[in-house]
Amino acid sequence: MQQKESYDVLRLIEHGQICYISSENVQGRTLARYLKYHPVMEKKELFLLLKAIAEQLELIHRCRGNPCYQYVNPYSIILAEDGRVYFLDMKAETNRKQIVFMQRRDVREYFLPPEENYYQNASKELDIYGLGKTFQYILASSETEPHLNRWEEHRLQNMISKTMGTKGSYYQSVSELQKQIPKWKEKVNKESSKDKGKYRWKIGITLFFAVVAAGYILIQQRKNVPDGIIKEQQKATRNANTELHTDSQENEKRDEEYLELALAYFLNVGNLEKSRICLNELTNKELAENLNMLIGAYEKQECPEDVTKYKRSLAYLEKVWEKRSKVSEEKKKQELQCLIRGYGLLDDEDSVEKVLELVKQGMQTDYLNDSVKKEMLEYQAAACEKKKSEEEAAKIYTEILEMEQQDGNREMLYKKIAQLYEATGRRDMAMDICIQGIGELKESQELKLMHIRSMCAEPSVSREECAMKIKEYVRDDGQLPDQEEFKKLQKEYAIKVEGEEVWVGR
């Protein structure tokens, strides 16, 4: 059930060319929550929503002193019960919880540029970037009825790309962006269909005239027709070829837009279904097929049965993207992320070395945010494990541990690192890692059991020291002796527990 709450929001009052800010309390829900319960919206509603959000931000920028909002994302935008759109009043103490939420890493990394780690800076450029990412979030979280036509998708994608400067240009103001938001037309689908027909007719008629013109020239040349007429026909042929070349360029441009969107869904949003939908729109079907194979394998987290075909797909992507990756650092990161995910599913020596090479390149790219860096390190550590370089893998997992914030994931990392050091014979390091993890995660039974096993297996640790540590763990956690792993340890090392007393026999 939707949760309606009370929020203190900015009330923007226009007076001539100046806007004044006041505050009021409204009932409603955040944009993120609204989208959760409204996965499908009418196309008209979508366009009006985008327009209303942009208008509110533009008014903020017009206010006295030309302020910036700073926190532009779906969690700071409120949809009131009356349908109006507002921005949260970030100075209101009642909204403190929302500010804390927006400082979470997963929120920051998605709605801020890679070079911005926190919501510390404020500028119109950052507001516009956040607006573009918010629009991208809306499109990724909802479906429209009727569906967006190709022109509308192209228009919106161009607009979003420009907010992030991915095309080398930026919006100077929100008002520039507002003009690019598609307008709702009742007959848009019918007209779109007509446009498609016109486009196909145009290509068909162009090809027809090109063939006719070429044939006519040959015939007339044989009849010794005057040079002037022949030149005219040759000119017509050149014009036809030029038009076809222009159409080809348009296809390439359109393909790049859909590819950008597909990669954004795959790498950033994690919506593989929408990524495939975008790939299906590519005129370059070979590229679409090979990238779809990679995405399918990644989704299942296993290499396809036809390993040879899969490797050919990866080699193809690497080759065709070589030129594209030189255009910008962002495109290079996209290429590397895709290939790392692809080769990371293979276990052969060449593929493992390929992952290590790609990760090395990735770590040298500019503006590498924490989530992408963490993912690359995870693939690097896994590759080292496949190479049986356990100690190197342990060091990389330690670096990942410094970046991880979730307790459950941190516990798994502590266990992984301890196991890897154990495998290399570095039992001293394994015990140190266990102690560090237990100090942080005091309720972790698994780490305590791992520490007990390492101590009991280490000849240099006295049986009395083992008994004292087990006694401490049992005193802190009375349920520890009931664990199956503890019972196994009792049999292996003759551990005896009676009340508060503990003995280790061997």
Describe the structure.
Strands 1-2-4-5 form a four-stranded antiparallel sheet. The protein has a two-stranded parallel sheet with strand order 3-6. It is an alpha+beta fold. A hairpin with a 2-residue loop joins β7 and β8. 64% of the residues lie in helices and 9% in strands. α9 (227-269) runs antiparallel to α10 and α17 (407-423) packs parallel to α19 (445-457). It is globular, with a radius of gyration of 31 Å. It is built from 21 helices and eight strands. The protein has four domains: 5-184, Transferase(Phosphotransferase), domain 1; 189-266; 284-387; 388-506, Serine Threonine Protein Phosphatase 5, Tetratricopeptide repeat (Alpha Horseshoe), CATH 1.25.40.
Strand order of the largest sheet: 1-2-4-5
pLDDT averaged over residues: 83
The value of Rg in angstroms is 31 Å
Q: How many DSSP-defined strands?
A: 8
Order of helices and strands: EEHEHEEHHHEHHHHHHHHHHHHHHHHEE
- How many domains, in number, for the residues? 4
Portion in helices: 55-70%
The major sheet is characterized as: 4 strands, antiparallel
Q: What overall form do the CA principal axes indicate?
A: globular
Which residues sit in consecutive blocks of at least 5 with pLDDT less than 50?
188-194, 203-225
CATH superfamily of the largest domain: Transferase(Phosphotransferase) domain 1
